[in-house]
Amino acid sequence: MNTQKKVALVTGASSGIGEAAAKQLLTLGYTVYGTSRRGAEAGERSFPLIALDVTDDLSVEAAIAQLLQREGRIDLLVNNAGVGVTGAAEESSIEQVHALFETNFHGVVRVTNAVLPIMRKQGSGRILNIGSGLGLIPAPFNAYYSATKHALEGYSESLDHEVRGFGVRVVVIEPGATRTSFETSTVASDRQLADYDAIRAKYLVAYEQAIATAGTAQGVAETIALAARAKNPKLRYPSGKDAKQGAFARRFLPRALFDKVLHKQFGLA
Fold first, then answer.
1. Active site residues
2. Does residue 2 belong to any structural domain of this protein?
């Protein structure tokens, strides 16, 4: 894609992967707008921040209308806004699960549906959905976060088939473990059970080890830039050594061997 004067919108751009992606796209010549729930109140950046809450229909509509009024087009959408929950599957209330899907999946749908009419009218556009390595390899104590990212995988692949004829492509970026503020802001399940305490402790040790050697937001931003500029984009772009190794293992290892490796990694029986 020729990036000259093209307009990019990055959701969840006040920190972490979103902020790194916005800065990377700036260096490639894009006119970049980021979003956060607080908008400009989130602090000064090298790109404008528009107020946008992906869980609110009116907020999404207003933000996209504001950007369209300013620039007249949107060429690249990076759906990055997301939240995390850790805990055993039965430890989260249905309300917590609903809230997680409202941001991680329904939020992507809201923003995408607001942008697609613009891209269809232009006859061009690219949508990059920030998934996760956990969208391919569900890890223990991440059932619902993994579920939101699995949903994003299926949604993105279906959508790409539907909009390709309009000159629009859809891609999933699949980061592995990444050192960002997202990891420290991930919340625990809201009704923890003592029965899981022993294996939870083992999981947390493995998790801390993974984060200690994790990739950076800049590394993911470079993968985003690669997918944004690719003439013939792939559907999936794993980002980081662990994500690439995990995708390979999931595809080629027998299930029993894959499970054995996963259980050993997380200290499970």
1. 145
2. no
